[in-house]
Amino acid sequence: MTLKQSNSVMWAEKWPASAKLNLMLRIVGQRADGYHLLQTVFQFIDLCDWIIFYPVDDGRVRLLNPIPGVPEIEDLTVKAANLLKLETGYPAGVCIEVEKNLPMGGGLGGGSSDAATVLVVLNQIWDLKLSKERLMELGLSLGADVPVFVYGYSAWAEGVGEKLEAITPAEQWVVVIKPDCHVNTKEIFSSKNLTRDSKSITIADFIAGQHNNDCVEVVSQQYSVVKDALVALSEFSEARLTGTGACVFAQFESKELAYSAYKSLELNGWQVYLAKGLNKSPLYAKLAG
Known about the structure:
By secondary structure, this protein is of the alpha+beta class.
């Protein structure tokens, strides 16, 4: 991929950190260290946080607008920038501004996407010349979803989500509901009721329509508002859970059908988003000019 941006003009630009959907999620085993072995399909949507970088003279990494209640050093964007400095010995610092649009705790990958945008853009601004593969390895140490955002293309994923193969699902219109709850991912993956022995499938199986999410039953049992959202959305199209939630989504053949569902759900009091599925991440689209 040829990147046309020169790093001299990348400061103070707004860089997208897009949301993702899990179009399918199967849990096919568990490692000795407790991590679950997955099969999943990631696709991006055009809902984004925006990240802006400013040069600083003191070598520190800091946030312009820290999230209340989250220590700055624990923020994934700060962790990502510090990880680059540790990896390369780069002496300069950066001030990071995050324009937060993606709901937290929704299964859309907002924090992971923010971290990936920091890794990818600062790698270029600072001229570090780390390979995408190395950035993905660094990203995995920050979170299981970070590598796919560094990868930048819709992907069939296995392992703990880090073994990626490009896939090109249809780029459909999507309606996403964010129920009024924050699903605890660790709690879901710790549940004794969680299916952990699903049969592995192939990409062809997924394309043929096998796109269940093994977490949906446990999440629906523990979070009734997620179950309610699935029921509400299913009146318009097949409703699915992304990741461990809380967000649920449905795909539509046209923008008009999606918009009609979006307006109806909005009138009924749901926090709802209208989006377009994308196979190339908005970040790489912008970098390529």
